[in-house]
Amino acid sequence: MTKKINLFTNLKSDFASGLVVFLVALPLCLGIAMASGAPLFSGIISGVIGGIIVGYLSKSHISVSGPAAGLTAIVLTAITDLGAFDIFLTAVFIAGLIQLGLGFIKAGTISNYFPTNVIEGMLAGIGIIIIMKQLPHAFGYDSDFEGDQSFMQMDGSNTFSALFGIFNYVQLGSIIITIISLIILIAWDKVPFLKKLKLIPGALIAVVIGVVLNEIFTLTGSSLAIAKEHLVSLPVPTTFEEFKQIIVTPNFSGITNPKVWVVGLTIAIVASIETLLCIEASDRMDVQKRYTDTNVELKAQGIGNIISSLLGGLPMTSVVVRSSANNNAGAKSKMSAIIHGLLLLVSVVTIPLLLNKIPLATLAAILLLVGYKLAKPSTFKHFWEKGKYQFIPFIATLLAVVFTDLLKGVALGIVISIIFILRGNLKRAYYFRKEEYADGDVIHIDLAQEVSFLNKAAIKLTLNHIPENSKVIINAQDTVYIAHDILDLIHEFKTIKAKDDNIKVKLKGFKKAYQLENSEETANKVTFEHYYDAAKRKTIKKEITIEEFHD
């Protein structure tokens, strides 16, 4: 029986962490909407739905959903191709339905096959991206939109050229505010009496100090004053008509357009994979090591995208940046994600003018610490010490995430991990040794517990290189499963090559690995040739406990 969780049990810490996530999410929602070529409020709507609706329905304790940087290129292209934002919303509605269906068919279980070193590599890669992307904002150079994670930028430059561009656009006021904000944030984590003030997060103090300092710079006419383009830029409706225009509903006349369905399917697949990756990463970050039902998560995301589309919002996923900020701020339950959504909703309606005074430099300081905690040197040391089979997929994933994107990086890491698994499997399929006796060398080949078709090439190579006039013992005493391909290979070696090259072969411990149909074939001792012939005739029914039989 599932234990019911009281969302208000950890309200003090969850409110503080929800406030931090709200501060991080606000510019990200706006930046991603701007980069997607969508109305700015569509990003806020997606953030609100992701926080309140998905936050409530999800079983994840620290994951936070909202508009994702990984979907910006898809959204921008789709809006252009479909010709109207309201038709695009129909595609988002379809994507939500598909995700809901994926949840019901339990497609979320694929997340169990993401290797840990790949997930950690993804997190470290995102941490490095956050640091590189936020450094320009910290120096007052805001050429790139908030939330961008792509190496190549929309203006043709890249992450490195943007870093070098800092030196041409240094804004001293932004640097001062960034440094002060970092000091406040670090002190809030390190100084004992400040750590006790759990209800007041350091991020909020940093934001307040940043706003106050910039107001002082502005009122005194100082050159340190941060210009409007380097502050949060939330649209402010001045009339009721402008406010009504915020809500855009889907144009369902486009539902017969095949392009709409292609876009919907594309968004559903990409958003689902990114969500599953983020959920797996969130569970890794969770200090209480709680696990999330990924099938329920897909259903929650599907419902979230359906509602978001009906209100004019962007498609959403579970997002690593917000989730890691939530975890770092001390979130205990999913109530923090819900609170962040409520704060987004209330603040954009009631105090947009005040929010527009927040310097991007302060938010950059918050995200720089988030990035550092994702890509700590201790993580690199940990995987280095685990050996090359753990470190290489980790570092390959990290580099690919930084220089391409999240999905390509994870795909590369998984491919490398599979190659290493296959390579290790090939090596461990058998153990080869040679012993000297008075009458000549005896070659021992000891088979592993499981010998599959993947081991065929390695065993074939070994058998082909056995010299003439040798004595060979092939030992299967510890073997539980042998693929028919391998039996075929050994049979051919024994009956053809061994006779031609005068090789004496002894099969030791080969076993009756399958129950044969004919009752006479179930005797305790069965010849290898009999077993082989039965396999060739496909009279094998099912695997049973193994008993030895000798040549």
Can you put this structure into words, describing what you see?
The protein has helices spanning 11-35, 40-57, 72-82, 85-104, 116-138, 159-165, 172-190, 192-195, 202-219, 240-244, 258-285, 294-310, 320-328, 335-350, 352-355, 360-374, 377-385, 388-403, 406-427, 456-464, 484-500, 528-536, and strands spanning 64-67, 316-319, 430-437, 440-447, 450-451, 471-475, 481-482, 504-508, 510-511, 514-516, 540-543, 548-549. The chain is of the alpha/beta class and 551 residues long. The longest helix has 28 residues, at 258-285. Helices cover 58% and strands 9% of the residues. The protein has 22 helices and 12 strands.
Q: Quick recap of the structure?
A:
With 551 residues, the protein is α/β, with parallel strands linked by helices. It contains 22 helices and twelve strands. It is elongated.
What distinguishing features does this structure have?
disordered C terminus, 551 residues, 4-stranded mixed β-sheet, 58% helix, 22 helices, two-stranded antiparallel ribbon, alpha/beta
